Amino acid sequence: MAESGGGGGCCPPMDLMRSETMQLVQLIVPMESAHLTVSYLGDLGLVQFKDLNSEKSPFQRTYAAQIKRCGEMARKIRFFKDQMSKAGVPAKEMLVKENDIDLDDVEVKLGELEAELVEINANNDKLQRSYNELMEYKLVLQKAGEFFSSAHRSATDQQSEIESQQAGEDLLESPLLQEEKSIDSTKQVKLGFLTGLVPREKSMVFERILFRATRGNIFIRQTVIEEPVIDPNTGEKAEKNVFVVFYSGERAKSKILKICEAFGANRYPFSEDLGRQAQMITEVSGRLSELKTTIDAGLGQRNILLQTIGDKFELWNLKVRKEKAIYHTLNMLSLDVTKKCLVAEGWSPVFASKEIQDALQRAAVDSNSQVGSIFQVLRTKESPPTYFRTNKFTSAIQEIVDAYGVAKYQEANPGVFTIVTFPFLFAVMFGDWGHGICILLATMYLILREKKLSSQKLGDIMEMAFGGRYVILMMSLFSIYTGLIYNEFFSIPYPLFAPSAYDCRDTSCSEATTIGLIKVRDTYPFGLDPVWHGSRSELPFLNSLKMKMSILLGVSQMNLGIIMSYFNARFFKSSVNIWFQFIPQMIFLNSLFGYLSVLIIIKWCTGSQADLYHVMIYMFLSPMDELGENQLFPHQKTVQLLLLFLALVSVPCMLLPKPFILKKQHEARHQGQLYAPLDETDESLHVETSGGSHGHEEFEFSEIFVHQLIHTIEFVLGAVSNTASYLRLWALSLAHSELSSVFYEKVLLLAFGYNNVLIWIVGIIVFIFATVGVLLVMETLSAFLHALRLHWVEFQNKFYEGDGYKFAPFTFVFTANEDE
C-alpha cells in the first residue's frame, strides 16, 4: 500500500489497486469540547462514526432536544425557501463563514422573521380574498344587471303593446276587464331571487339539481364570463357562470341555499332597483382600487422582507444543517460513566491519524478545555469499510465498478484495469474515427466548461453525461484509434498512411468486385487496407477478422481476471485458493480457449486453410482421429490429447480438495485453544468459514462443499458461455459498420444522385439526424451497455467478490447542496 511519506503533504499518493488501510479508532472527548471536536472532524471528513447507542430510540438520546430545535429551525428555513421561490427572490451566495454566527442568534432571528412573514402573508391573504370577492361581486352586478335591464325593457315593450291593443277593443268588454283588475292583491305571489357565480363545469348539473329539488318551481338564467376569475376560497383561477335564480317561498329558498353551498357557488346580494345597481357598481369599483393599492403596498413590504432573508439564507441554511448533522453524530457517541466525557468509535484511514489528532488538539484549545481528547487505535476482527481515494478522472470508473458491488476490504480493484479496458472494448464495437471525433468534440465542450457546468443544475441525462465526461473522453479516443484500424470515417475508407497494396487487373477496373484485385505494393502499414471496402470479399473477411479478434480479446481479459484472483489469494495469504482455485482455473481455461487463441494466431501467421471449428469440435468428439488437412503444427494431436486430459483433471481439482482442507484447518485451529493469535489468522479462511467475531464459529462442511460445487460448475460452464459472450464485440462492430454504410449510401449518395439542390439539402439533413440519433446516441448507449456487461459478468466474476461496504465518513462537503 502507498504510505504517507515525509514532507508537508496531507495525503499519500493514490493507490487504486487496494483500498486504503483502515483502523478502528476510539476517541474520548470532554463534554465541553465535544461539539467543536465533531465539527472539526466533519470539516476533515475522514472518520466514519459507529452508532454506540443503537439500542436507544431517537428520543432517549442525549442531544434529542438540540436535534428537535435544529429541526424546527430547518422547518422555518424551508418555509422561507418556499416563499422566496414563489416570489422569485433569489438567495445570495455566502460571503461570511458560518463560524462567524451564533446558533442562538440565528434561532431568535428566524423566529422574528417567520412571525413577521406569517403576519404579512395572513394580511395579504385576507386582502386578496376580499379583492377576489369584490371582483366576483362586480361581475355579478354587471351580468345580472344586464339581465334585469333587458328584462325590464322587454316588460315595458310588452306592456305598451298590450295597452295599445286594449284601446282598440269594443267598449262592451271593458266592464269584464275592470272586474278582472279588481282581483284581491293578497293572493298575488311574491317572487324572490338569488344571484352568484357557479363553476362552469358544474353549471349544467347545478341547474338540473335545482330544477328537481324544487320540482320545477324555479326560473334560472346563466351568463358565461369570458375570462377566468380567481376563486376567493381556493385562490385559483376558474371558469365560472353568473346565475340568477327566481323562486317562490322560503322553503324553496332554503333548498337553493343548500345546493349553492354543495356546489361551491358563491352568492352575492343584488338589488332590483336600477339606480341602486349603478350606485353599488360605483362603490365596489372604488373599494377595488383601494384594495389594489393596499395589496401592492403589502407585497412590496413582503418582497423587502424576503430580500433581507435572501441575503443571509444560504448562511443560515448551512449553519442549521451543520449543527443538525453535528448533534446527530453526537447522539451516536456514548456517555462516559462519569458523565463528563463522550466516547466515540469509528473507522478512519491509517494515513489520517495525524490529521485527526491535530483536529482533536485544535478543538480542545479553541473550546478552552482543561483536558485534551484521547485518541487510540482498537484491535478488531470486524471487517473494515472500503475506501478508494479517487479524482475527477477515476471517480466515474470507480462508480461503474461500485454499481456491481463495493469491493471487499483490500481485495483487488477491477477499476484499475477498467480505466483502459472499458473504453477499449467500447471502441472495438464502435470503431469509426469520424464518429469518435464527433463524441470527442462534445466531450471537450463538457470538459472545457466543467467549472461553469458543475455549479449549474443540469437535467438527469445531462448530469449523467457530465459526471462521466472523462470516461466518454477515453471512449472517443479509443474509438478514433479502432476507427483508424478499421479504416472507417462515417463508413468511408481513406488511404491515410499509404496507397493501397492492391490494384485492378486492368485499366477499366471492371472486375474489381467479381474476380478480384492483385497485390502490387507492400502491405498497408496500419489497419485495414481501404480497398477491402466495397469488394466482394469485404464481409467474409471482416467477419473472420473481427470474430477471431473478439475471441482473443475475451480470452485475454478472462485470463487477466483469473490472474487477479491469484494476487488476491496471495495478498490474503490463502495458499488453498492458489493451488486449488487459481491453478486449475488457468489450466482449464487455457487448455480449451487459450489453445483456440494460439490456433488463431498460428493460422494468421501461416495462412493455413484449416477449419478451426472442426478442430475444436472433434477435439472433444473424436480426440483419437487424425487431423489431416486441419493440422497446423507437428504433434498437434498429442498436444490436444494432453490439453484435454489437463482440462478434465482440473475440474475435480477445483471441486474436491478445498472443502476438505478447509475443514482440516478449522479443526486444527480450534483444537485445544479457544482463540487463535490475531497475527496467525488466515484472513481468507476466516471469511470463508463464517466471518464470526468470536473465533468459535460453527463449520458447516455441507455448505462449504455445496458452495464449492456451485462455484466449479459456474466456472466450467461460464468458460464456454463467457467466451461466446465476447462475440458481441464482433456483432456490434459489424452492425455499427453496416448501419453507417447504409446511411451513407442510401441517404447521402442517393440524394446527391439527383440534380436538385433541395433534395441535396434534405438528404444532408436526414443523414445528419440519422447519424446523430442512431449512431451517436443509440449505438453509443448500446455499446456502452455491452461493454458494461462484459466487465461485470465475464471479467469481474473471475476474482471480484464485491461484498464490502463503502467508507461513509462524517463530512460537511455536501451539506449545502443536499435536501432533507
Automatic annotation (TrEMBL):
Subcellular location: Membrane
Coiled coil location: 96-137
The organism of origin for this protein: Arabidopsis lyrata subsp. lyrata
Function noted in UniProt: Essential component of the vacuolar proton pump (V-ATPase), a multimeric enzyme that catalyzes the translocation of protons across the membranes. Required for assembly and activity of the V-ATPase.
Primary residence: membrane
GO biological process: proton motive force-driven ATP synthesis; regulation of auxin polar transport; vacuolar acidification
UniProt-listed InterPro entries: V-ATPase_116kDa_su, V-type_ATPase_116kDa_su_euka
Protein family according to the UniProt entry: Belongs to the V-ATPase 116 kDa subunit family.
Keywords (A to Z) from UniProt: Coiled coil, Hydrogen ion transport, Ion transport, Membrane, Transmembrane, Transmembrane helix, Transport
Protein name: V-type proton ATPase subunit a
